[in-house]
């Protein structure tokens, strides 16, 4: 198996090393793992692509490249430049430093990479490590992803639902904020929404008197509805959420037609 991996935390991020190990186990001794990751951190860029300026790409080693662009740029670089003649069988994105569950999905560059892969017709899985009091103090806060990552990917490859239609399916995996030995199992659930908390901005003034705004995250440990991703993670489960890039709300199409047409 040929696997392309990327992330949004950057080429030197510890979570990328975790993902490399996961990908190597999945690819096996006869497989290939190719890295095309952002040269610098790209957290929060979503599905952004560098449409108005070029992206520099540099080879750092055997099957290892850094691109001065977004995670989606990295996928495009991997598919149409680095692996143009040998398209990968799978794209893995992560392991993100922090969760990409709930409303975080909409901002995530980790998810953006899997969206681009799915739009290009390549199976894709995003993986993120939820952080909290129980795992922040561990020697390796990615411990749960390290010990459960490969088995989760293998389970999805062997038993997951994969299609080849328009806006094809991809998967969002979040590892819970607990020690690896305390993981209760794996559960499938929808994307949740943390009520009463959100991203915001905090103003600051520079020494020169200029006003700057820092984007500020909300409380990540507000549970979502029971059975949805954040709630599952906070209860100690690995969450798996099937996703598509299509944003149409099909539940209101007929009502809207009646009202407007």
From TrEMBL:
Pfam families xref list: SurE
Subcellular location: Cytoplasm
Enzyme kind, highest EC tier: hydrolase
GO molecular function terms listed in the Swiss-Prot or TrEMBL record: 3'-nucleotidase activity; 5'-nucleotidase activity; exopolyphosphatase activity; metal ion binding; nucleotide binding
Domain Survival protein SurE-like phosphatase/nucleotidase: start-end pairs: 3-195
InterPro entries: SurE, SurE-like_Pase/nucleotidase, SurE-like_sf
SUPFAM superfamilies (alphabetical): SurE-like
Cofactor note: Binds 1 divalent metal cation per subunit.
Main location: cytoplasm
Keyword annotations of the record: Cytoplasm, Hydrolase, Metal-binding, Nucleotide-binding
Family affiliation: Belongs to the SurE nucleotidase family.
Protein role: Nucleotidase that shows phosphatase activity on nucleoside 5'-monophosphates.
Entries under PANTHER family matching the protein: 5'-NUCLEOTIDASE SURE, 5'_3'-NUCLEOTIDASE SURE
Annotated protein name in UniProt: 5'-nucleotidase SurE
């Amino acid at each position: 198996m040929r696997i392309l991996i990327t992330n949004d935390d950057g080429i030197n991020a510890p979570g990328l090393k975790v993902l490399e190990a996961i990908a190597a186990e999945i690819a096996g001794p006869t497989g290939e793992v190719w890295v095309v990751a952002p040269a610098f951190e790209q957290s929060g860029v979503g599905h952004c692509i560098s449409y108005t300026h070029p992206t520099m790409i540099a080879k750092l080693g055997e099957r290892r490249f850094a691109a001065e662009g977004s995670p989606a740029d990295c996928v495009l670089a991997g598919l149409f430049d680095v692996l143009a003649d040998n398209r990968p069988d799978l794209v893995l994105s992560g392991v993100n430093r922090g969760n990409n569950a709930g409303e975080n999905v909409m901002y995530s560059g980790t998810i953006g990479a899997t969206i681009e892969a799915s739009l290009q017709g390549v199976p894709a899985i995003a993986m993120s490590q939820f952080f909290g009091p129980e795992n922040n103090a561990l020697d390796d806060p990615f411990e749960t992803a390290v010990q459960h990552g490969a088995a989760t990917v293998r389970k999805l490859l062997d038993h997951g639902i994969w299609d080849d239609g328009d806006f094809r399916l991809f998967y969002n995996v979040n590892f819970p904020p607990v020690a690896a030995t305390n993981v209760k199992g794996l559960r499938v659930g929808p994307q949740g929404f943390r009520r009463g908390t959100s991203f915001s901005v905090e103003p600051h003034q520079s020494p020169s008197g200029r006003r700057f705004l820092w984007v500020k995250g909300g409380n990540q440990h507000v549970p979502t509805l029971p059975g949805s991703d954040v709630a599952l993670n906070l209860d100690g489960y690995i969450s798996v959420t099937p996703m598509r890039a299509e944003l149409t709300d099909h539940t209101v199409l007929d009502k809207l037609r009646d009202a407007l047409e």
